[in-house]
Design goal:
372 residues, 15 helices, alpha/beta
Length: 372
């Protein structure tokens, strides 16, 4: 099988000849280690990871994240909504971000935190800037890039966005949860605005021919959901359906990847109801991946499952290899599995464990064909 055939088989819950390895993210510090150890620049190419992400908020919004300072350099002035950010801080394209304290602590910036009215919300400059950007970008230009990636046997992830996470990162997590109960008009309007941008992204990447809609919206923590099932049904289920529907208006059977950290067990049936077909990362510190596969493997494919809270940073190379093999034999059995670390690999992950992960992928990639 080619890389693309292998990926398509896995996400369609069929059995590939080998279990594919999915997108692996390195933090800045570990990326420097990678470059020192290998002399290479791109982990995707070096480790032969056949996925590429296209689209994204900043791609057409008048600016980009640049340099080591991670400061937004677009044409939107967020200074009326924020304290001084330069020189130590990070500012994203929507105006959210954080300051870095003397002890490397991060103090988050919530530009909508003090707003008290819908007029203030609607006057925030990001919404109009994103609408103009969405109208200006040409999906045919992105299609040229997508087609080139496909011609190089790469599997294309189409970035859609994260409406819940975007909303609370603009408003503040506690403030937003309070809004859901005490100021629902504001919370609903904010979610609608974030959803509008996600719908435009879904349409954009689907028209360009992305292989999968890539949604990334953390709504669970280690112990369970961040909101109740009732709140999920009221606030989030309709917007996930709407966003997915926009993509499927273009490609009716396009797969949908959904990322959420934590224990998402109670939410999985609702995600399936919304149209999700691939769940990531099935965080093993919070859920048993084999049990999740047994319960939902007839409706979902799974992507991830290798722990970054325990095994990758604190295990030995042999333990890393053993976990990879276990996941392939259990979650991989019967197809429907893409293996990867559950989240970004940070500086606490020893280089030897990074190497062990990729060695194990090579050694055990076909063990799902013979495991009992």
């Amino acid at each position: 099988m080619t890389h693309r055939e292998r990926f398509m088989a896995a996400i369609q819950r069929r059995v590939p000849d080998r279990i594919p390895v999915g997108k692996v993210d390195f933090c800045g510090t570990l990326l420097k280690v990678f470059k020192e150890k290998t002399g290479a620049c791109d982990p995707n190419e070096y480790f032969d990871i056949p996925t590429r992400l296209v689209g994204g908020w900043a791609s057409g919004a008048g600016g980009a994240m640049v340099g080591g300072s991670h400061m937004w350099k677009g044409d939107i002035d967020y200074s009326p909504y924020l304290p001084p950010v330069e020189p130590e801080g990070r500012l994203m394209c929507k105006g959210d971000g954080y300051l870095i304290g003397d002890d490397d602590t991060e103090v988050y910036l919530f530009p909508l935190k003090s707003m008290k009215s819908l007029d203030e919300l609607y006057g925030y400059p990001w919404w109009e800037a994103e609408r103009k950007a969405a109208q200006a970008r040409d999906w045919r230009e992105l299609k040229i890039k997508v087609d080139r990636l496909k011609d190089n046997d790469l599997f294309v992830l189409g970035w859609v966005g994260n409406p819940f996470e975007s909303a609370w990162k603009l408003r503040g997590f506690e403030r937003f949860l309070v809004d859901l109960m005490e100021f629902p008009e504001f919370a609903g309007a904010l979610l609608d605005l974030c959803t509008e941008a996600c719908c435009a992204n879904a349409e954009y990447v689907a028209k360009a021919g992305a292989d999968i809609l890539f949604m990334y919206d953390d709504i669970a923590m280690d112990t369970g959901l961040m909101v109740s099932n009732a709140a999920f049904r009221k606030w989030l289920l309709p917007i996930y359906r709407k966003i997915i529907g926009k993509g499927r208006d273009i490609i009716h059977d396009i797969p949908v990847f959904f990322h959420t950290d934590g224990n998402a067990m109670d939410m999985i049936p609702l995600l399936i109801e919304a149209g999700v077909t691939v769940l990531n990362p099935v965080q093993p510190e919070c859920m048993d991946p084999a049990r999740v596969k047994k319960l939902f493997g007839d409706k979902l494919a799974f992507w991830g499952t290798v722990g970054v809270q325990r095994t990758m940073p604190f295990g030995s190379p042999e333990e890393v290899k053993a976990e990879v093999k276990l996941r392939m034999e259990t979650v991989g059995k019967g197809g429907g599995f893409v293996i990867s670390p559950a989240q970004t690999l940070y500086s606490d992950v020893p280089w030897e464990n990074v190497v062990a992960f990729f060695e194990a992928v090579g050694e055990y990639g076909d063990c799902h064909l013979t495991s009992t």
